[in-house]
Every structure is written in structure tokens, then in C-alpha cells.
Amino acid sequence: MSAGLSLTGLTVSYGPRTVLNELSVDLTPGRVHGLIGPNGAGKSTLVKAVLGLIAYEGSVTVSGRSLASMNPRQRARHLAYLAQETSSPADFTGRQLVEMGRYARQSRFAAMSSADERAVDAALRLTGADAWAQRPVAGTSGGERQLTGLARALAQEAPVLVLDEPISALDMSHEMAVLCLLHPWLDEDPANRLVVVVLHDLSLAARFCDDLILLTPGRHGAVIAAHGTPDDVLTVDLLRAAYGIDVDVRRSPVTDSLSVTAL
Ligand SMILES: Nc1ncnc2c1ncn2[C@@H]1O[C@H](COP(=O)(O)OP(=O)(O)OP(=O)(O)O)[C@@H](O)[C@H]1O
Fold first, then answer.
1. Fewer C-beta within 10 Å: the chain N or C terminus?
2. Does residue 25 contact residue 62 with C-beta atoms inside 8 Å?
């Protein structure tokens, strides 16, 4: 049984169009796995397939268990998800939205337990979303909504955290705050936890991810063009082939990680 998250022959089509073509990859626990690639490559499609939100061929397993065999509550105990856009029922406060992250852990119709309250409090504090938790989500800013969505995913306390562009609406200080919490979160249970994070900023991906998966579109659907450490994946040749432009890749003396500049 393989620990972590494994995709085998994952194929997704929208109507007649194949978007992901037989992707196979093993994502090991204890690591932040960055999913990168150009717009339209299929990153969100991959994430949605893993979450069981869209139909796919092939298999997705967590700790050796097929996700297809799980009902939504079971799946939510294994995987927590931050979508690109956080939606919430009208008039829900931030706190109520985060409490929704606990549904898979509660018995049906039960009130929030003290463990639920603790998890919600901790997630709100960690993300800073406690500052607007009493206000309706609909009346908060895009960045605040994104942080509330992250808090909901963390409150779920699932070992696999899947974040689709979690910093797209954030200023640089909040970008840092979010990316800096990933490794400490993993380190609480490194044998079981892992993060999959979709990022467009390749320098931040190099700095905060242990491994990168570079997804590129192909004639018959996207393929994994490269998978490995940031040093393996962020090469001038691979990035030129993926994005169609020249880039400068150099090690930052400040962060000691690769910095990628589009030319
Ligand atoms: N519901 C859908 N129906 C049909 N085609 C879709 C659907 N959702 C996505 N696509 C197409 O599938 C391809 C992959 O889209 P996807 O959103 O997965 O890409 P992405 O890599 O996440 O892009 P981005 O970086 O722009 O968010 C795109 O060509 C997109 O137009």
C-alpha cells in the first residue's frame, strides 16, 4: 500500500475533448507538492478530478484507498480543498463558513463539539480570518474570502490539503503568511499529511514547494512534462517549452531558492 496520494492513468475529458491524458504520479507525505503550468493546461481539472468533483478515468488513491469507493463524507476526511473561488451560502458569516469544514467529522444533526470549536478557532487564528469571522462573507474582500476559505479547509483536519491558487487574491504579506504556514502544518504529522498547491508564481513555488509537477497541454490532453525538485523542473529549457517564452532562472542569494523572471 502506497502512503500519500497516487494518480494512475488519470484521464479527463470535457465532452469530446480530452484535457488530461493518462497522468500518473505518486505524491509522498511530508511534502508540499506544487502544481504549475500555463493557463488552461489542466491544473484545476486535475485538482477537481482528485476531489471527485468531475468524472475521470483511471484511479486516484489516498494511502492506498481508492477515492472512487468513498462517499463525500469519507472523502472529506481524507482531502480538504480550497477552490479558486470561495462560494458560500448567502448571509453566512466567516465563522459559519469555516464551521462547514467540520461537517465530515460531525454526526448528522449534531451540534458543534468542543473539538469542532477548537479546530475552527485554530484555523481562524492561523489564517487571520478571525478578524472578520463575525461578518457576512458576502461583505468581505476577495483576499479576506480567500483566507476564510483556507481556514475552512484547515478546520477540516484532513491529511491531504489541496489548494487551488490560494494566494491569487492576496497581498505579499498575506502571500507569505499563507505559504509560511504550509510546512509547520505538515510537520505536525509528516508521515500522513501532504499539500498539493497550484501556483503561478514560479519563484514562490521554488521557495515553498519541495516538489513541482509541471503540467503542459498537448494535442491529446495535458501531460506531466516534468516532476521533481524545483532544481529539476525550473530549467530554462523546460519553462520555454511549457510557457513559450524565455526566462532567466537564478538562485536568489537572499532566499537560497530559484528565482524565475520572464524575459
Ligand atoms: N467545465 C468545462 N467544460 C469544458 N471545458 C472546460 C471546463 N473547465 C475547463 N475547461 C477547459 O479545460 C482546459 C483546462 O482548464 P483548467 O481550468 O483545468 O486549466 P488551468 O490549468 O487550471 O488554467 P488556469 O491556470 O487558467 O486556472 C481549458 O482549456 C479549459 O478551457
1. N
2. no
